[in-house]
Write a structure and sequence with these properties.
Helices cover about 20% and strands about 35% of the residues. The chain is of the alpha+beta class and about 400 residues long. The radius of gyration is 26 Å and the shape is globular. Its EC number is 3.1.2.-.
Length: about 400
Amino acid sequence: MASSSSCAIYCSRVLIRCSASEGGGGQGQRRSSGGSNAVRVNGAAHRAPLQVGAALETSINRSLAELSAPVLTPPPPPLPGGAEDRVLRRQNIPTEKQTVDPFRQALIVEGGVRYQQTLVVRSYEVGPDKTATMETVLNLLQETALNHVWMSGLLGDGFGATHGMIKNNLIWVVSRMHVQVDQYPIWGEVLDIDTWVGSSGKNGMRRDWLIRGRNSGDTFVRATSTWVMMNKVTRRLSKMPEEVRGEIAPWFIDRHAIEEEGAEKIIKLDRNAKYVDSDLKPKRSDLDMNHHVNNVKYVRWMLETLPGHFLQQHQLSSIILEYRKECGSSDVVQSICQPDEDSVPPEEHVSMVNGPSLLPEIISGHHSLAGALQQWPTKYTHLLQLKAGDKHEEIVRGRTTWKKKTHKAP
């Protein structure tokens, strides 16, 4: 029985309709060789692979006659083997290095080692002020890092693990992350993200990122991180096998997105800190493919400890994270935060209200006004720790720097 599907693309007041059919003959049969190259990216039909950074008009700038012709898309061959073979077939992980990925709008550049991807900020990736959140930024960093390994041809079936790592039962774990945000991307903005790797000591790897606005050319985000290997079974850190070093060393670039003269030491907090949020429990949705809580969730727990009035007026400009221990689904977590009282900027010491001074009881009785007038520090130290009876084990230490928002949420 024949079946058909159609899609519509609107551009500059012109409606272009294309259709694909199966089981038909005639012209559809004659155009089957060209139709096999049709792909769908972000829900839009394209007659040829997308070009990175090209405008949408480029991909549909063809004659109406050509686009409206039916295209025969033959069904894929049956998937062989068992369930595992079917999963691998669905993933279609490259076994050799790829230089272009039309589905991710990605390229391998700079001598075939640096990864570059173009994407658009989605509506579900922004907050009330229509700007991307720090969680969104961290998720983009993680996604592009994995895509980089995907295109390298080295990806096994793990969370960014190479074939040599899979053979040695090893996984990657991040030990340190530093992100600097000059400005947050906004909803609908087109971004160019670059990432690359380099050596870090004898047994570690460094990964850096740059996020730029395609239209403005401005650098929005700089980030650097350090990764080490952990044995998947014993959950202990491991040395880098020579086999794995041989896989990743050809990809190393000696360049830094953030020049750090010396790693800032983050002090350990205790329960006497100013802000404490206890009894935080991971959800199953918080776990990643390595079966521990994704590091992006840690940041959410840290930031939610801060007062709401502060978060409404300030945005995060820098975060440093030092990871100490993984967290599982059955753990109970405590989030602790201490402000640097000497980090209140000078302009915060002047009154924000013109005219006669308001009485303290008036200010304290008006909750929103009290929050607006409070002199907020701009630097904070954070600690996430596991609660196990009277014992507390560190998960991650953090250090955040904030600045005033340039515009308020509606």
